[in-house]
Amino acid sequence: MWLKVKNRFPVAVAKFWCSLAYDATTNRLFVVQRDRESIGVMDATTGAVITHFSAILSVGDIYFDPASREVYVTCEQGHLDVYREAGTKYTNGSGVPAEVGVSVFAFDPRTRKLFLPLVELKCSDPNCSLPLVPKPGSSVVIVIA
C-alpha cells in the first residue's frame, strides 16, 4: 500500500473537533472546534496554532476554496456561512439559509456550486424518543450557487 502515516501531532486548538479543510498554498488546516464554536487554523506540518475565528453553532462540514480564498462552513441548524481570508484574519462575508439537518456538502470548484444532502427525520415511536429515523421519500439534494 502506498499510503502510510507520515506525521502525528496533537490538535491543540480543540478538545472536540469534527471536520477538517486544507489550504495547500499556505499549508494550513482548518479545524472545526465544536467545544469552542470556532474554527482553528493550524500549520499542517507542525500542528502549531496560527489563529482561530468564531463560527456558527453546530458546524457539520468545512471546505477551503483555494481560488476564492474562502472557507465554507455548514451548520446543522440550517445555515451555510462563507468566511473570507486575508492573511491570518477570517471574516464572515456572507451566509445562506439552507435547511435544518444539513451537515455535510460537496463543492464543485469549477462551477462554485455546493451540493447539500438532506433527509427529513421523524420520531421512531409515539413518545418521540431517540433514535430518529428517515422519513420515507424525503431524501433530497439542495444545490446552492
Question: Can you tell me about this structure?
Answer:
There is one protein chain. With 145 residues, the chain is an all-beta fold. It has one domain: Methylamine Dehydrogenase, Chain H (7 Propeller), CATH 2.130.10.10. It has no helices and 13 strands. A four-stranded antiparallel beta sheet has the order 1-2-3-4, with no helix packed on it. The protein has a four-stranded antiparallel beta sheet with strand order 5-6-7-8, with no helix packed on it. It is globular and about 50 Å long.
Q: Mean pLDDT, as a whole number?
A: 85
Structural class category: mainly beta
**What is the count of structural domains?**
1
CATH evolutionary superfamily:
YVTN repeat-like/Quinoprotein amine dehydrogenase
Count of separate DSSP helical elements: 0
* General shape: globular
Number of strands: 13
Largest β-sheet summary? 4 strands, antiparallel
CATH hierarchy, class: Mainly Beta
User: The CATH topology, please?
Assistant: Methylamine Dehydrogenase, Chain H
Helix content: under 10%
CATH architecture: 7 Propeller
